[in-house]
Amino acid sequence: MTSLTDKTVIAATHAQMNTAPVFDRVDPALLGQQMYALIAELYPICRSITGNGVRETLKGLQHFVPLRLQEVPTGTRVFDWTVPPEWNIRDAYVKNSRGQRVVDFRKSNLHVLNYSVPVHEKMRLAELKPHLFTLSEHPDWIPYRTSYYKRNWGFCLSHKDLLALPDDEYEVCIDASLENGHLTYGEVYLPGTTTDEILISAHTCHPSLANDNLSGVTIACFLARYISNRPRRYSYRFLFIPGTIGAITWLCLNESTVPRIKHGLVLAGLGDFGPLSYKKSRRGDTEIDQVAAHVLRQFGPKSQTLEFSPYGYDERQYCSPGFNLAVGRLSRTPHGTFPEYHTSADDLNFISPQALGESFSACASILSILERNRTYLNTNPKCEPQLGERGLYRLMGGSTDHNTKEMAMLWVLNLSDGTHTLLDIAEHAQLSFDSVYGAAAPLKEQGLLKDVFKGSPSNMVEEKL
Ligand code: ZN
Asked: How many angstroms separate the alpha carbon of residue 426 from the centre of ligand 1?
């Protein structure tokens, strides 16, 4: 169950991606299907915060993107933490006295308490019970439980199956190893015309769960593929890391790189049927916070923007006070607020190609605005410039579309005083970013706008609008 048994889907999807270099020509519905297919391929793998399941998953992603596997040895100190021993599992079961497997890792890897120490013993039910975990409120579901930092062993099973276990002598076996090894993570770096970076981070440590983990991993992978095929101002760093310890490890070992990160997104839980949600960075007023809120408003009134809290996924680490990065989190239904969270019901039926495609579109829109957002200075600020003479005004009668374009142009000229970005102007004028961006282009061409560079010198690259 821990091998990619059929590479066909991955290879076919890979070939299709190669022929779709720019987002404008990408069909979110088709992409959604391709992402769903990749999730189905990766779903059976037993992942954890370390071990071969993570390596196998990352190698599956290498069919799509030039991902580098990084190995950090057990025992490495990373800030207040230590990289743990590597965990690998081959088999696990509980057998009754007739030799029948009543709990079987081969049927679902959720059956094992993730990071269990090895065990092989016989015991009565009463002795076994403290090591059994169930969910009485959802008696058909297997819970997902971990014990990374406390040595323990256990099994997770449906409450219905627990109630059906008679008193008996059971053979308990977890054929696992917990030894010196490595923490493995994946990294994709795509240089842009500046060294300023956008960070995209997804956690890779969950076993057979579809929405939590695999949706974020897959969308990040497809985004990397998409970005790699188009011109970009920013450099992009995609991290595929185990939750918490992975982000801590990366931040500790790459501290000198951190100042380059200007914007970032943690991607998690992006395949379910709920509306999109964006959790703001700790700072709360950064450009990506503004961009994400702007984009989410276009995805319907149910989309929501949430304030930062120090609980959640790896935004906790990126937004810890010593880093305080402009990193938010994009999800659909927030983690922990749906009953399927961390259970066997977070399966392939819990996610849809449509939701994955829409989530991808939201990510791509956010990145697209970050790439194009600029601050300009009106070079003719004393009264309005003569637009008609320059062929910019009333060229095509008074259609609604044309009126919008003219209004956008007037807003850009009026608010381009060196302090407002194009997105500020769009928000103020209640226009879409694209219409404001589209209005700025001819104004710049006519010399009525000039760039105002903000931020680091590395960002001072003159580009065609
Ligand atoms: Zn989780």
From this structure: 36
Contact 172, 117 (CB under 8 A): no
234 and 354 inside one domain? yes
Which CATH number covers residue 172? 3.50.30.90
Q: How confident is the model at residue 458 (pLDDT cuts 50, 70, 90)?
A: very low
Same domain, 248 and 104: no
For residue 70, how far is its CA from the centre of ligand 1 (angstroms)?
22
| pTM as predicted | 0.91
Shared domain for 345 and 224, answered yes or no, is yes
The residues, any chain, with a CB within 8 Å of residue 273's CB and separated by 6 or more, are 332, 333, 352, 355
CA–centroid distance, residue 206 to ligand 1 (Å):
7
The conformational region for residue 456 under phi > 0 = left, psi -120 to 50 = alpha, else beta, is: beta
How far away, in angstroms, is 214 Cα from ligand 1 center? Answer: 10
> Number of structural domains, the chain?
3
Q: How many A from CA of 81 to the centre of ligand 1? A: 20
Residue-number span of the structural domain to which 129 is assigned:
86-179
Looking at the domain assignment, is residue 130 inside a domain? yes
Mention every residue, 6+ apart, whose C-beta is less than 8 A from residue 416.
375, 376, 377, 378, 425, 440, 449
Centre of ligand 1 from the C-alpha of residue 342, in Å: 6
Task: Quote the CA–CA distance of 298 and 285 in Å, as a whole number.
Answer: 20
CA–centroid distance, 269 to ligand 1, in Å, is 9
H or E stretch at 61:
helix 52-61
Residues with beta carbon < 5 A to ion ligand 1?
212
CA distance 344 to 351: 13
Do 34 and 191 contact (CB within 8 A), yes or no?
Answer: no
Cβ-based neighbours of 109, under 8 Å, separated by 6 or more: 1, 44, 46, 89, 207, 208
In a domain, 188, yes or no: no
In degrees, rounded to 5, the angle at the alpha carbon of residue 43 between the alpha carbons of residues 157 and 248 is: 90
- Residue 312 alpha carbon to ligand 1 centre in Å: 9
Per residue in 328-365, pLDDT (tens digit) is 999 999 998 999 999 999 999 999 999 999 999 999 99
Compute the CA torsion angle 123, 127, 131, 134 (nearest 10 deg): 110
Give yes or no: residues 212 and 232 share one domain: yes
CATH number, domain with residue 404 = 1.10.10.10
Q: Could you tell me the two tokens for 113? A: 């308490």
Pull the structure tokens for residue 399. Answer: 């259609």
pLDDT digits (tens, 9 = 90+) for 44-86: 999 999 999 999 999 999 999 999 999 999 999 999 999 999 9
